[in-house]
Design a protein that fits this description.
490 residues; alpha/beta; 2 domains; eight-stranded mixed beta sheet; six-stranded mixed beta sheet; 19 strands
Length: 490
């Protein structure tokens, strides 16, 4: 049995300025053929799960083309067309295939295309015909369209946020393929959309944790293949955005519809529990409470690069400096210019910096300060978080600066902080600090929750704000909760 693997993955924040080009995909993840396996073998990723499942089942895996970029602005149309054409070309070159596994996202937007996932799936379906088994892995933050269901045989979305189960979805997608090919399984899918958007919501805690448990109870039935609660991706100004529930049974469309609608009804009835409190930074420091010897993790969600934030916002760091915090570190701010300045000066130098605040005015002005260059690194380490463990990370040249007693790590490459390895690379043992500030929405929890005294979100202005009313939607279908109070469903 020969199965091809490939895909294009991007979480598009349409409120970001500019366009996302090929260079941003090539900077993060761009693999052709064997390069995909080399980058993911032994990694807790979708592709890592696909690779291991194929080896275990004796399936001949043919890697084709895969690209992903850090969440950012709308994808330039010429960049998307080039990637999609390359995917089709490499699938063609794979020879005779028994099935195709696509690793996509669910919240990708290109110029003129509100849903690149449906576009890719439909293109592959049209190219290979109605009889080719096609399975797809998707992110929990997908804004899922019916066209994807119409042109794929099975869709599997991650259940957990942080996404510690991406590997498992890759395994699940491969395990169903032999059953599809033999005719043992005939998936029937149904999706229910709710007029409801969510900010980033962890599944470690209620209410999302409870909804997942309801989905998993349904999956215990013999004829139920999958039930997934998709949170959607709110920072996307397209008509259809928001929460959906996808249920999949073995050849029982009515049951898939019933399960999907029942779970959606529970989510709708508990929607007020998903409304987040808003915590300005100064309140966060008060909320930290007594020191129990473990760090307080402060996450700046609104500038999360994992949701499209520039990663160079200064609101939280400025508040920390003004509060004269002690035993505090910040990891990390994206500022290639400051990194280059520190590397030119060398360890032990004292430099005048204009740190951060160079990309999006919403995220604050640069911090003008005197900084001591404590440490310089190449930005390379092995990810240890349960999410993506084993992945080789390269953030380019980095620097550890000391500004008014606060340790601040600065990066060349923009991404969110997932675990404490980036701190350890710079000689910082976070368990010895009272305050550890990072830029991330929820993925950091997988790496930091086990060592934290408290986790507190600091709400600053930004492109990934928890306050959805701050986004200037123009194309979004209204009414929708929580932007509109008078919303009825069904």
């Amino acid at each position: 049995m020969r199965i091809a693997m490939g895909g294009i993955s991007h979480e598009t924040n349409t409120f970001c300025s500019g366009k996302t080009g090929l260079d941003e995909f090539q900077e993060r993840e761009w693999g052709v053929g064997q390069e995909i396996i080399d980058a993911n073998k032994g990694v807790r990723s979708y592709q890592g799960g696909v690779i291991d499942a194929c080896e275990r089942l004796g399936i001949d895996l043919v890697p084709t083309f895969y690209a992903s970029a850090t969440p950012s602005a709308i994808i330039a149309r010429e960049a998307f067309d080039e990637m999609e054409n390359l995917l089709i070309q490499k699938l063609d070159e794979a020879g005779k295939l028994d099935g195709i596994c696509l690793n996509l996202h669910g919240a990708g937007v290109a110029e003129g295309i509100d849903d690149i996932e449906s576009h890719v799936i439909t293109r592959v379906r049209d190219h290979f015909g109605p009889d080719m088994p096609i399975v797809v892995t998707l992110d929990l933050h997908g804004n899922i369209f019916q066209e994807s269901l119409d042109n794929a045989d099975a869709l599997f979305g991650v259940n957990l946020y942080p996404h510690t189960d991406s590997y498992d979805r890759g395994v699940e997608a491969i395990e169903i393929l032999p059953k599809l090919i033999s005719g043992e399984v005939k998936p029937a899918m149904h999706i229910t959309h709710l007029p409801m958007m969510l900010p980033s919501t962890t599944t470690d805690l209620s209410p999302a944790k409870d909804i997942n448990e309801i989905c998993w109870e349904h999956e215990k039935q013999d004829d139920v293949i999958d039930c997934t609660f998709f949170h959607g991706f709110a920072p996307a100004d397209i008509p259809r955005v928001g929460v959906s529930v996808l249920a999949m049974t073995n050849n029982d469309p009515a049951k898939a519809k019933q399960i999907s609608e029942d779970v959606a009804g529970t989510i709708w009835s508990r929607r007020e529990e998903f409304r987040p409190p808003i915590n300005p930074p100064e309140k966060v420091f008060e909320m930290a409470g007594e020191d129990d010897g473990r760090p307080v993790i402060i996450n700046e969600k609104a500038d999360n690069p994992g949701g499209g934030g520039p990663g160079d916002g200064t609101h939280l760091l400025r508040a920390m400096i003004e509060a004269k915090l002690e035993d505090a570190c910040f990891g990390f701010i994206h500022d290639p210019e400051t990194v280059a300045q520190a590397h030119d000066a060398g360890v032990g130098a004292t430099i005048s910096v204009r740190l951060g605040g160079k990309k999006e005015p919403l995220h604050g002005e640069p911090i003008e300060a005197t900084a001591y260059v404590k440490c310089l690194t190449d930005g390379r380490f092995i990810q240890q978080s349960p999410m993506g463990r084993g992945r080789k990370v390269d953030l380019g040249k980095m620097a550890r600066l000391v500004i008014d007693g606060i340790d601040v790590i600065v990066s060349t490459i923009r991404t969110q902080t997932l675990d404490d390895e980036v701190f350890r690379l710079h000689g910082i043992e976070v368990t010895r600090y009272k305050y550890v500030a990072i830029k991330s929405s929820n993925h950091f929890r997988a790496g930091f929750a086990p060592i934290a005294h408290k986790i507190i979100r600091a709400d600053t202005p930004g492109l990934v704000s928890a306050d959805l009313s701050t986004f200037n939607y123009k194309r979004l279908e209204r009414p929708i909760w929580p932007l509109d109070d008078e919303v009825s469903w069904p």
